């Protein structure tokens, strides 16, 4: 999509989504039929080509529709092990910058959201600085001279998201079912709650204030301040804090020592949120972070923030410690305590857990400290591979919504550390915050 108008008609959006499911479904069925007469190597090559081709179809349609459709695609791409790696890789392109909406359209939106617009701003660039699934970011200057970043929602996005939710569940369930047998219901519950929260910028502003207060004494984390007088349900204004974008920060342009420090700051941010504050920044898209050359990390987007119940935080802490202390046999009972079990309620067998723990335990080794992304079979991809090797067993597991949400965040965090190639004292760091979770 270029600078054309967004597709806002509920009927047209449903037809787009339904047509997508039909095209992908027909392609999958045709490919399965042809597999019957293909040789082994040819079959594998054609299966991969077909997966990528269908993923590109999904990305093209969801990117054009923006709103809930695009956001769901982004969220699904972060659930490692849910979809074939070829599909997840292409879906990850939805995490990149979205096509922009014309300046005159966004000017109408921001003026509609802020009735005193001319009194607030000295200047406002209506050409987008960045674009995403439900809105765009614009540079502006307040009357007091302060430089700000202004997130403005796309026209009618709240209505679009709510309308999409009625149709999207059926269509996305069909699409996911083409690639996996995983239970879609708890996954959909998570996606729906997250989407409804993200279209309310007043809710996000409050999340930013809460996170800012919790990190008041944490110098390594920079959270842009909310400009309350220039914030409404569809407009969120924050001080402008520039930084090194993730794509640049993860490159060899910066020394390993600095990337290690950024990795440690990100890890502490994650563990502190999960185990100490029990308030998790649950959108691990690397584009939501920027990096400073003194080692600090800027966190931009708080549209997806997750409250963690105290008993769940303690269970995660217990699980981390059990892994570090090589007490794999204790894990089924720990998991069962938070509702993670077989569908019939029986504990998850140790044999199913052990291969994952063997991999994760490497992260917590003391000497030499683990480097994310090291070797040809680094942990992030190996965990995904294990997920596919044990696909049938995974469909017999019951995952509470809270667990799905947190696991997505942890999985994305592992991916971010892998992109940085970070080395660090992960064992020491996790034990530090696990002790916090044990406190009443």
Identify low-pLDDT runs. Answer: 1-11, 13-60, 62-68, 78-82, 388-392
Q: What is the number of helices?
A: 18
- Oligomer description: single chain
Helix content: 55-70%
Overall shape: globular
Largest sheet: 5 strands, antiparallel
Structural class: alpha+beta
The radius of gyration is: 22 Å
Write up what this structure looks like.
- The protein has three domains: 10-99 and 157-198, no CATH class; 103-153 and 200-238, Phosphorylase Kinase, domain 1 (2-Layer Sandwich); 245-440, no CATH class.
- The chain is built from 18 helices and 13 strands.
- The chain has helices at 10-35, 40-65, 67-77, 85-91, 103-113, 117-120, 157-179, 184-198, 201-214, 246-249, 256-277, 310-324, 331-336, 350-363, 379-389, 391-394, 401-420, 426-437; strands at 121-124, 130-131, 135-142, 147-153, 221-222, 235-239, 244-245, 279-281, 289-291, 297-299, 305-307, 341-342, 397-398.
- The longest helix has 26 residues, at 10-35.
- Mean pLDDT is 77; it is low at 1-11, 13-60, 62-68, 78-82 and 388-392.
Q: What topology emerges from the helices and strands here?
A:
Blueprint: H1 10-35, H2 40-65, H3 67-77, H4 85-91, H5 103-113, H6 117-120, E1 121-124, E2 130-131, E3 135-142, E4 147-153, H7 157-179, H8 184-198, H9 201-214, E5 221-222, E6 235-239, E7 244-245, H10 246-249, H11 256-277, E8 279-281, E9 289-291, E10 297-299, E11 305-307, H12 310-324, H13 331-336, E12 341-342, H14 350-363, H15 379-389, H16 391-394, E13 397-398, H17 401-420, H18 426-437
Parallel strand pairs: 5-10
Antiparallel strand pairs: 1-3, 2-3, 3-4, 4-6, 7-9, 8-11, 9-10, 12-13
Helix pairs in contact: 1-2, 1-7, 2-3, 2-4, 3-4, 7-8, 8-17, 11-17, 11-18, 12-18, 14-15
């Amino acid at each position: 999509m270029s600078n054309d108008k967004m597709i806002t008609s509920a009927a047209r959006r449903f037809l787009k989504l339904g047509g997508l499911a039909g095209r992908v479904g027909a392609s999958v069925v045709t490919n399965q039929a042809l597999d019957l007469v293909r040789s082994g190597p040819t079959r594998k090559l054609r299966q991969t080509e077909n997966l990528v081709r269908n993923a590109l179809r999904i990305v093209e349609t969801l990117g054009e529709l923006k709103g809930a459709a695009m956001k769901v695609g982004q969220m699904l791409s972060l659930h490692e092990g849910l979809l074939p790696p070829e599909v997840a890789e292409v879906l990850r392109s939805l995490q990149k910058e979205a096509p922009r909406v014309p300046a005159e359209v966004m000017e109408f939106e921001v003026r509609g959201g802020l009735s005193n617009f001319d009194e607030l701003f000295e200047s406002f660039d209506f050409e987008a600085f960045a674009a995403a699934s439900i809105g765009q970011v614009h540079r502006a200057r307040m009357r007091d001279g302060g430089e700000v970043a202004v997130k403005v929602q796309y026209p009618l996005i709240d209505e679009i998201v709510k309308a999409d939710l009625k149709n999207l569940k059926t269509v996305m369930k069909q699409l996911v079912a083409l690639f996996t047998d995983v239970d879609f219901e708890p996954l959909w519950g998570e996606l729906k709650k997250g989407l409804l929260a993200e279209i309310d910028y007043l809710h996000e502003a409050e999340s930013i204030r809460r996170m800012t207060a919790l990190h008041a004494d944490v110098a390594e984390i920079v959270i842009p301040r909310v400009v309350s007088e220039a914030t409404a349900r569809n407009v969120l204004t924050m001080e402008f804090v520039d930084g090194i974008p993730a794509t640049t920060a993860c490159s060899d342009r910066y020394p390993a020592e600095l990337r290690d420090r950024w990795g440690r700051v990100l890890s502490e941010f994650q563990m502190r949120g999960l185990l100490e504050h029990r308030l998790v920044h649950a959108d691990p898209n690397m584009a939501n972070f920027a990096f400073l050359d003194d080692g600090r990390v800027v966190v931009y987007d708080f549209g997806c923030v997750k409250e963690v119940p105290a008993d769940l935080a303690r269970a995660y802490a217990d699980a981390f410690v059990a892994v570090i202390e090589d007490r794999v046999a204790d894990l089924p009972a720990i998991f069962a305590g938070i509702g993670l079990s077989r569908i019939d309620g029986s504990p998850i067998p140790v044999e199913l857990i052990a291969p994952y723990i063997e991999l994760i335990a490497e992260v917590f080794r003391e000497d030499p400290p683990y480097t994310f992304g090291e070797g040809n079979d680094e942990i992030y991809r190996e965990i995904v591979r294990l997920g596919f090797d044990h696909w049938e067993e995974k469909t017999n597991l019951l995952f509470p919504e809270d667990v799905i949400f947190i696991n997505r965040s942890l999985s994305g965090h592992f991916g971010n550390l892998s992109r940085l190639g970070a080395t660090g004292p992960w064992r020491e760091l996790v034990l530090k915050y696990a002790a916090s979770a044990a406190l009443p």
